[in-house]
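Step 1: inspect the first sequence and its tokens.
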Amino acid sequence: MSGRRIFIKNSAFTIAGSLLAGVNASGRGQRYLKITNDADEEAFWEEVRMQFPLTHARTYFNNGSIGPSPYPVLEAVRLKMEELNALGEYKGHEDSRKPIAEFVKVPYHEISLTHNTTEGINIIAAGLPLKRGDEVIMTSHEHAGNALPWLNQKKLKGFKIKVFTPADTAEDNLNLINDLITEKTRVIAVPHITCTTGHLLPVQQIAELAHDKKIWVFYDGAHAAGSIALDLKKIGCDFYASCGHKWLLGPSGTGFLYVREEMFDVVQAGFIGAYSDTGWEITEERQMLSGYVPDAHRYDYGTQSAALSNGLKTAVAFINEIGMPRVESYSRGLTTLLRNNLANLGGDLDILTPEEEISRSTMVTFRLPDMNYRDFGKLASENKFRIRLVPESKLNAIRISTHIYNNKNEIENFTALVVKAMKG
């Protein structure tokens, strides 16, 4: 770390105007323009923490639901909104398309800008040519945002959904999927990382297995973008949807959908608008849509928020300044520490997140032996911890998700709370 200096500058974010350093934010700290550190790792991450308006009155362990944005992102949104209203303009939402494409290592023309992960999932679920008798493979640990679009299309089109419950190892999960595949299987539509337990599925191997059998592959990446380094070309999927408001630390109302170029004419664009088309005419004599643009822009349409897009672009730049490998290593280190702490408590404490390192990410989910999960949630709240309860899949569990604004002391304090709860 010696000599390491990270500067977060206006030029890095291409924000109109200048960010205001040293301005108090509701008494919760200061807005910083740069993060610098020459040697001390702990001091470095503390400076990162000071970029966020998060209150110090409690510990935030629910990044898996929403990731608070750092000051540069908030300023980017505000300043762009002021600029647009000062000039009476509305364009600029396209500005985040290229940074997102570079962040996930795909060509610019394969990225569609959406408002959230669920929108991207609906585009794929509705747009694929599925029919009665076809089969789609999913997990029993789906977020509503992935479950409902496919269930809705199942209801409308009559295809069948086959389900497996994620296992503790990558090899077992690959075998579970393989066992469900038949000649009628058309799609594997599973989370990259489950929202329930933080299972990290072997996505590259799943894609290889599927493509060998001419099966399309879609991944719900809501919990992956910004928590682990992504290379969607290496993963090999056909479609990938994610959002800006979790580990990317961007504004709510932002997201993206990756569609592999070869799939443009397979996935029908069900909703289109200005710039989705190659030409149109509607007169008394002629009503015509000539076709769709030859890129993923066909799937996004209408007026979008240039201010939110500027915030998303800034969020990507913020993470890139720190370095995605470093972000991932730090966040994984925190959840590994927590998982190890919980495992060392013994008793009947039930850790649902896999022990296998390649099968877990930046979340830890567990159950206490003699305490209802909702009672623990109340206890955690009273002790100033913001956590997530997991009633989904009838797990009735407790989920902790960490990011770059958390630290080891918070992990140790939370472990102490668990110990207190177990002692009654």
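Step 2: inspect the second sequence and its tokens, then contrast the two.
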Amino acid sequence: MSRSRYQKNNKQNILRWGYIIFFGLISTWLVASIIMQKSPSEVISGAFSKIPNPTGSAKDALIKEKDSIISDLETKLANCTGANGFKRGLVIIDSETLNMRDKPSLSSSIVLRIPANAEVKIMFYDTETYYLNGNAGRWCKINYAGTEGWVWGNFISEI
């Protein structure tokens, strides 16, 4: 019976010392944050930031690689578009005018009539392909005379 009491007291002593050490570490951490005039989270992150990071150079190399890819794509995009960011197009039709619509649909209302051979700013093309009179094409969002609208892309020739 004395042996079991000794083991019980020994476990209590170990647990007590564990609490004391834990409390001491927390107290030291909080006192250090007061002395350094930083938040406790800044103190703890500062302590671990001094540990060398062997993968940091690999991360930096990957970031530089991705930045160069982005830079190349931006250059290619600038070469594809004009100075204002839009491609230029010419209205090529058999009739006198081309209808500019408010939505990419033949049933939408006509916003403006663009004369043949007029120059327009091409903003972008619709992603879906449609069929008009048996011909495949895409709607094109354009700007003409300060007005934005949609025209059938097959009637616009990029210049």
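Step 3: confirm your contrast with the notes below.
Residues 87-158 form a domain with the SH3 type barrels. fold (CATH 2.30.30.40). DSSP finds three helices and nine strands in the chain.
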